[in-house]
Amino acid sequence: MTPQATGNPTRPLTDGQRQPTPGTPRDPGTPGAPGRTDTELLIGASVLLADAALAAKKAGADLTGALTGGRFALQALRRPTWALAAAASCVRALNGPAGLGFGANGGLVGELARIAGNITRRRPAAVAMAVDAFALRIEAATVTHPNLDSEHARRLTGALVAGDRLEAARALHALVERLGVTRALTTVSPVIMELLALTGLLDENPVNDEFSWVTLAGGIPTTDPFLGLPSSLLKYLNPGPGRAERAEPDPILAKVLGTSRNDIVSYINDIGALGNHGLVLLRRVACADGAERYVLLLPGTSFALLSNSTPQDLIGAFDGCLRTDTTYTRAARKLLSRAGVPAGAELMLVGHSLGGLTAMNLASDVDVASEYRVTHVITLGSPIDAKRPADHTTRVVSLVNKHDVIPMLDGRGPASPHDLPAEWVELAWLDESYDYPLSHAPQAYSDSLRGELSHYRERVNGLIGRYDGEITVNQPYMLRDR
Questions:
Q1: What three-state secondary structure class fits 73?
Q2: What Å distances lie between residue 254 and 34, 209, 259, 355, CA to CA?
Q3: Pair type for strands 279-287 and 469-480
Q4: Which region, left, alpha or beta, applies to residue 305 given φ > 0 means left and ψ of -120 to 50 means alpha?
Q5: pTM exceeds cut of 0.85
Q6: What are phi and psi of 191, to 5 degrees?
Q7: Would you give the distance in Å from CA 284 to the centre of its chain?
Q8: How many CB atoms lie within 10 A of CB 371?
């Protein structure tokens, strides 16, 4: 299978809708919507439903607050007949099928009513519209990911949309039995956030709904989708102050670093050689224009253990996705200080997976952006779309293999209606490394950029051309939690 460059086929409009960029193929046969594809219509409809669902949820909270507030109680003492009629109207609006359909929420009384509705599996109008919005996103994703249109995948997504957990469990078992765990995960990865949101929205647990509503609004959830545990708990699981120590490269790493240069494929190969057991690399470059610049290479996660002695573990990955100040970023800041990188020096951050998240977290840190001139953040397979650098002039380049599960974890999948900032560069493609984790490996990204997608390689290299020059220092560091 030849890699297919997909890029980002849409650009944002001021009203939040999406429109094809010039040169994008159009579908003149779409009834009632000349020049728009079926996918765009589905996404547009999902945006309208999501907005309506969020508005209905807010209306329920406002109405509940008005009905249970102190001002209403005072008015009831003065005008009891009016208050009784008004209360009856509010209750009908909140609970009636022609109104918000059991839409009370917010405040003590509203939250108790919402919890009761969750436990008894009442589905308010807001939830029904949110489910339909997620269903449309899933449908839109099948256009570019036809494996979602298979019988087994349809059975799973249909069961989750219907809120039938028993059928969803059977469908998932059948999908895994037919495809295996990794291919089943890869099949549903384009809509994994939508499926998790549906799970949280339609179960009886009242404390995990926030994950679904934040996902619907296009944000990064700060709770887990199953128990509703807040991300703030991660700081207790990942509390290390971070430590950085100089390390000597082994013969294999030394050989790879001996061929390094200012080239995106070379950077990816260097990151692959560093591994994911705590090593990072700081490079000093005497650039062709006479300036001295620095490059920090940040590898990704070790999946061997949930937690280990380095910041590159699964706990660190969850922490990096949800927070900015992590053990990895603290250790990286100490590295820059220990290495004597001068204040005001130009710095490029290149990272894979968790390393890309950490690069973005460092660029988002006001202290780092004040101390150094972070010129570029280059990420590979990293869920960074909801993060922003502190310095608006920092050039962000995101490389995404669309078969890779990990970049989808920021909530912006292929059918998401939310676009990136106009100044960002996202280069995305589909290649033959279908199965996760192969699709996530640095080597998969390197192979694609060396082959049919060499024009992407040239584009990235053009963006980082100021770092061309002679490498004067190639120093690995070992990062530790403590």
A1: helix
A2: 58, 50, 9, 21
A3: antiparallel
A4: beta
A5: no
A6: -125, 25
A7: 31
A8: 18
Task: Reduce the DSSP state of residue 63 to 3 states and report it.
Answer: helix
CA 29 to CA 35: how far, in whole Å? 8
Of 225, 188, 214, nearest in space to 415 by CA: 188
Residue 19 has pLDDT above 50, yes or no: no
pLDDT digits (tens, 9 = 90+) for 181-219: 878 888 888 888 899 999 999 998 888 999 999 989 887
Encoding tokens for residue 460?
A: 């990235």
Taking a C-beta distance cutoff of 8 angstroms, is the pair 119, 204 a contact? yes
CA atoms 431, 432, 437, 441: torsion sign = negative
State how far the Cα of 255 lies from the Cα of 203, in Å rounded to an integer.
54
CA–CA distance, 56 with 101 (Å, rounded to integer): 10
For tokens 């610049």, the residue is: 293
Return the beta strands (E) in 334-442 as ranges.
346-352, 373-380, 395-401, 425-430
| Rg of the Cα atoms in the chain | 25
Q: Quick one: what percent of the chain has pLDDT higher than 70?
A: 90
- Residue 417 clears pLDDT 70, i.e. is over it: no
DSSP string, 57-107: HHHHHHHHHHHHSHHHHHHHHH-HHHHHHHHHHHHHHHHSTTTTSS---SH
Contact 215, 386 (CB under 8 A): no
- Alpha helical stretches, state H, 120-191: 125-144, 151-162, 165-179, 181-188
- The token pair that represents 3 in the structure block: 């890699």
Distance CA 89, CA 369 (A): 55
